[in-house]
Amino acid sequence: MKIVIAPDSYKGSLSALEASQAIERGVKKVLPTSETVLVPVADGGEGTMDSLIAATNGRKVEVLVKGPLLDNIQGAYGILGDQETCVIEMASASGLCLVESDKLNPMTATTYGTGELIKKALNDGCRKFILGVGGSATNDGGAGMLQALGMKLLDDEGLSIRFGGEGLSRIVEIDTKDFDSRITECEFLIASDVQNPLVGPEGASAVFGPQKGATPDMVAFLDNALSIWADLVEAKTGLHLHNKVGAGAAGGIGGAFQAFFPSKTKRGIDIVIEYTKLSEKLQGAQCVFTGEGQIDYQTASGKTPMGVAEKAKEFGIPVFALAGSIGTGIEVLYNHGITSVHSIVSAPISLEEAIERGSELLEFSAEQVMRTFLASFNR
Description:
By secondary structure, the protein is an alpha/beta fold. The chain contains 14 helices and 13 strands.
């Protein structure tokens, strides 16, 4: 029996590869001679770089960059197996994961480090880019990234604006004269599922600002700052970012890519499915395991289990999703290829214990699901 195992990471507990291996151990307890195909995947957020590097026999390049609060951190980007394509996770330079919860501050957090990663990759000869823009700590409209690449963003005294959303509120001029000319030679594929516009009640500040530490007053201030920025971008480029779909991704960096880069946007999971050749690996499989830390109605917006299930559905293959926790609204997933959703936590335990025992719990759950499926399959 051929079984494809294609989970995302279980954040704080297991990488996608570790999760795949745990599920495989559970399956092998039931069917030791089964053919298991491990396809660690991601949806454009954390783990995307590692997934694509593994799938293409690529390599990782470590780079010292500025973090979201301008401290020096060790960032990284990936060079895929074609030796031409660079994959960057914005979160590795400008992510929430880099800031302690009590220090989150979108008023000052910057995307400068993301720009530094792009610049280093340009220096190394890369001209094809995949950018995963999930998990940012920023709300600066991508201004810091643009500054790192040579764009001058000036206040009414002709000085460079300060970093973060607060500095963006003081911008009066965009000077692109020294913006890195190599950008025009490149292709940028932005991995994002976010459809939000740049400003307004569904914009970057209102929807995502609070999770980055924004108070209600900050949200109003940041939204106004992004509106000022959008007005200047429109005057400079003719592109009306204010209500443009996807411009609000990652604190507005989506809009920066739309305005100043030769770019297009695609669902992160679709990019990973393409590069991992999941369709080919699904052929001849009898069932599929996928999963991630939390599965709920939001999974249907293009997260990993949803993307894997949609592809498996094309082949008529049942899909079992293993979740660290199950939220509301999962019934919507059944129409998109997920056969059933299973919590790996079978008894009341703390979050800390669940994280610590993630591998054990995932292995046990996979074994139980496999036993049930095998009994049904044999009948």
